[in-house]
Amino acid sequence: MRWPADVDLVSPDRIPQYVTGFGVALLFVVIAEITVLLAVGSPAVTDGQFLVGVVTTIPFLVGIAFGGRWLRTTDLTPSRYPRIVGWILGSLISFLLINLALMAVMPPDSTGLVVGWIRWSVSLGAGVGLLVGCLEGRAIERTLAAERASLRAEHLAEQREYLDYLNGILRHEVLNTATIINGYASLLREEAATTDQQRRWAEIVIDESEEMSTVIDDVRILLQSTDDEVQLEGVDLSRLLTDEVRKLEHKWGPVDVETSIPSGVSVRADPLVARVFGNLLSNAVEHNDAATPRVSIAVDPGPDTVRIEIADNGPGISDSALETLFERTQSRGSSHGIGLYLVRQLVTRYDGAVDVVETGPDGTTFAVELPAASESQSTASSNARSTSPP
């Protein structure tokens, strides 16, 4: 018989199969041993020592057979298997040598008992070796996992410290610079610009400085959203959306807004959730080429989740942009920037979902689903608002 060329008989991945096969083979040895003794009419088959040996062998054989199956399903890596085999062979040989010495000192009365004693020694040694090897392997894996977790924690702490440092630079240096640019550009537009073209250039500088400030603020929010400890609470979604609509109209001027927002709807989130809807509403207007931007907001509260749909009458999203819409690798040239990546990160933080349910030349509809706040969370949120200072 020739094995297929792609079958590696010495691969560690095949060791569990060999262990199971070894256990099954020993079981067949016991069955064959009893069959032969019965066939020849040997009195050893009814000997008390022989029967005790058979009874005490069976659990070890079953353990070896199922031990191989367990190895295939456990989280032990195959690199641990050869050492387990070493324990099996070492323990088997040790037990066998000890019992051969005992047989030399106390010879059994018959050949059947000799065979049974050897079979018992092999089974017991292999079973004990498999148990010790598995326990050692698990201990090693747990130790390595703890070390890896410790290294990851140190690395994450270093990364967090570095990101906080970069955030500080962005906010204290770049943001201050953007504010100064914005201020001087506003002065140029109001006092120094003498033509429409000059005023337009000044407005471009102002818009870009404001965009820079928005991106820096989004980075800060992203850093907050990566905190390990996330404490979610009941957030009044009805009030939050009403505030965001007011901000939208204040920032972008005339906007046709239609709302269907029931009162008293709360979701399980944190204050950063406002950024989700602030970004979605801003995108609905900022990238809208209609003469009068139109935005509709519909809230559908359910027992477990709250669904919020935000639709606009913009030009829609191209198929190429749609594929990577929520990815952080997008460039600003995609016209959506970091905002939608931030939206996805925050919604994921709340165990929710966000997606584009419809897009085309008549507009785009985003759907956000967030966990509904429990009654106790909603009550706590309401009490906090009522006791907060004006």
Automatic annotation (TrEMBL):
One Pfam family it belongs to: HATPase_c
Catalysed reaction equations from the record: ATP + protein L-histidine = ADP + protein N-phospho-L-histidine
Q: Which UniProt keywords apply?
A: ATP-binding, Kinase, Membrane, Nucleotide-binding, Phosphoprotein, Transferase, Transmembrane, Transmembrane helix, Two-component regulatory system
**EC number assigned by the record:** 2.7.13.3
Q: Where is this region: Disordered?
A: 371-390
* Alphabetized PROSITE patterns for the sequence: HIS_KIN (PS50109)
Q: Which InterPro entries match?
A: BphY/WalK/GraS-like, HATPase_C_sf, HATPase_dom, His_kinase_dom, HisK_dim/P_dom, HisK_dim/P_sf, Sig_transdc_His_kin-like_C
Domain of life of the source: Archaea
Give the transmembrane region(s): 21-44, 50-72, 84-105, 117-135
Q: Which residues form the Histidine kinase domain?
A: 169-374
Q: What GO annotations for molecular function exist for this entry?
A: ATP binding; phosphorelay response regulator activity; phosphorelay sensor kinase activity; protein kinase activator activity
Q: Specify whether Electron transport is a keyword of the entry.
A: no
Protein name listed in UniProt: histidine kinase
**What species is given as this protein's source?**
Haloterrigena salina JCM 13891
